[in-house]
Design a protein that fits this description.
Blueprint (H helix, E strand, L loop, with lengths): L1 H17 L2 H37 L6 H16 L10 H25 L3 H5 L1 H35 L4 H8 L9 H7 L27
Helix pairs in contact: 2-3, 2-4, 2-6, 3-4, 4-8
């Protein structure tokens, strides 16, 4: 009896392996691991925001609108909790991506504003925070690209035959991914060159004299 059970287990394992179950499980774990790293790096960035805002505020207190935008964007990011189990929800992924994009834009604007304050740029604490932010942004990009790749591989695999039948049987659904178009838009900082003088303003047009009668 024991040998019969063992034989059934071996046969079942072979069938599952042949239908791609093990590969699906492996790719699913790869997506979850990649997503965990994305969350870690985004959280690392969010943690830098309070000190960064306070440091800039010490030199540019009147830039209140910029500080408000950054603070609000960070708060919005903190309100969205997207776990690995939620990756099949495209609406949640879209909301998460939008919130992170708004924070990226707000931080880019904050960095642009800092260019107007030489004393701020020379501040050691600001230089350290700026370096940390740049490093974190690079790690975010790397983590995001790995997630995009692993998700594409997973989705392609579970949609192919016969893995699609196995995925359907065991509840493995396609996962939402970052949209390439929006990613390019939100990750591109505005280009501002303070080394170039502003173009001279044109004098207002003078009214033409009325013809003499």
């Amino acid at each position: 009896m024991r040998y019969l059970i063992l034989a059934c287990v071996l046969v079942a394992s072979s069938l599952l392996s042949g239908c791609g179950y093990n590969a699906i499980q492996s790719k699913d774990e790869a997506v979850k691991a990649a997503w965990s790293e994305v969350l870690n790096q985004y959280q690392r960035r969010a943690d830098l925001v309070p000190n960064l805002v306070n440091t800039v505020k010490g030199y540019a207190a009147h830039e209140e609108e910029v500080f408000t935008k950054v603070t609000e964007a960070r708060a919005k990011v903190g309100q969205i909790n997207l776990t690995a189990d939620d990756l099949t929800d495209e609406n949640k992924m879209r909301a998460f991506q939008q919130a992170q994009g708004e924070l990226s834009s707000a931080l880019s604007r904050l960095m642009v504003v800092s260019e107007n304050y030489p004393q701020l740029k020379a501040d050691g604490l600001f230089q350290n925070l700026q370096a940390q932010l740049e490093g974190t942004e690079n790690r975010v990009t790397v983590a995001r690209n790995r997630f995009i790749q692993s998700t594409q591989e997973y989705n392609t695999f579970v949609r192919q035959f016969p893995q699609n039948l196995t995925a359907m049987m065991f509840g493995y659904k396609a996962k939402a991914n970052f949209t390439v178009e929006n990613e390019k838009q939100i990750s591109t900082a505005p280009t501002v060159d303070f080394s170039k003088p502003a173009p001279p303003q044109q004098p207002p047009a003078q009214p033409q004299p009325e013809p003499a009668h």
